[in-house]
Give the backbone structure.
Amino acid sequence: MSRYYTAINKYGDLDVIDEDNGSVFMSISGCSNTDVRRCRSIIFDDADELVHFIQNEKACTDKTYYQFFSACAYEIINENYIKLYYEIVVSFT
């Protein structure tokens, strides 16, 4: 059973909503609002896969002091798939 679902809010952002408590887990801006040319991208079948990927990447980058995971934008493909644009920012300061 799916634990997360997505909805587009009135600002055009993609809200990932937790079914258990109805709260917004995260909100991602649309790719028309963001320059995604330098971002990596990956396509997901559903919101559960998206959340699992984001949590996994954040866990990996949280183990270092100089890396940061950033979900930059989203795009809906064929009304069924979610394309996530993301960056792993490296800072040496």
Summary: The chain has one helix and six strands. The beta strands are 4-8, 14-18, 24-28, 40-44, 67-77, 81-90. The chain has a mean pLDDT of 88.
